[in-house]
Amino acid sequence: MDETRPVNGFRRGIHRVLASLNCDGARGLALLAVCAALLLPVLAGDAGRQALRYDRTALADGQWWRLLSAHFVHLDFDHAALNSLGLLLMWALFARDYRPRHWLAIVLGSIAAIDAGLWLCDSTVAWYVGSSGALHGVMAAGTLAHLRRRDLDGWILAAFIVVKLAYEQGVGALPFTDSHAGVVVDAHLFGVLGGLAVAACLRPQMESL
């Protein structure tokens, strides 16, 4: 009896699971790197968050790095972990829908839309942290790719996004996010608009690789 068969079968099974979640090979390493970028800033504590967050007064003084860094810092570890779980879900659903450079453009476009939207349209937001807005842009771009392929889940995802944004704009943050005071729901809206704007100019990968 070949004793390596069970081991090889186990490895193949693990590989199939990882591939189904878009976490195999280079994609898995990239996912770990992005999760680390979201979680590690928590170690800097309050001082790090103060130095990196979107801060309207500091931006007016020329501290432009905050337009990017704000989307990688969080209120606390729970907030960062929640956004990391959101990233895992987005990765599993959409990672193969666009090429890596296209995803980079989508994320940067979402971030730019959030920053511009908060600065120009919502002067009441004095400060902001978190990656949920950018993740909404990723979800919108991935949903558009699924709609272009005429996948059924694309319509389900599109309906979810529309209902969620409508609720947030009309009522406020969803009940299960109330534990994080001061959820900036407009960041979700601007993130979706930015993600869609960039994705509309890109050609998605019509088949999984």
Q: Please state the overall shape, judged from the principal axes of the Cα atoms.
A: globular
Mean pLDDT: 89
Q: In percent terms, what proportion of residues is strand?
A: under 5%
Q: What profile does the largest beta sheet have? A: 2 strands, antiparallel
* Count of extended strands: 2
Question: Spans of 5+ residues with little confidence (pLDDT < 50)?
Answer: none
Q: Radius of gyration from the CA trace? A: 19 Å
Find the structural class using helix and strand composition.
Answer: mainly alpha
Strand order in space, largest sheet: 1-2
What gap, in angstroms, lies between the N and C termini?
A: 36 Å
Q: In sequence order, what are the helices and strands, one letter per element?
A: HHHEHHHHEHHH
Separate helix tally? 10
Could you estimate the helical fraction of the residues in percent?
Answer: 55-70%
Structural commentary:
The model has no long low-confidence stretch (mean pLDDT 89). The two termini are 36 Å apart. The radius of gyration is 19 Å and the shape is globular. The chain has 209 residues and is mainly α. Strands 1-2 form a two-stranded antiparallel ribbon. The chain has helices at 4-20, 25-39, 45-52, 56-60, 66-69, 77-94, 100-121, 132-148, 152-170, 185-199; strands at 54-55, 127-128. It contains ten helices and two strands. α2 (25-39) runs antiparallel to α6 and α6 packs parallel to α8 (132-148).
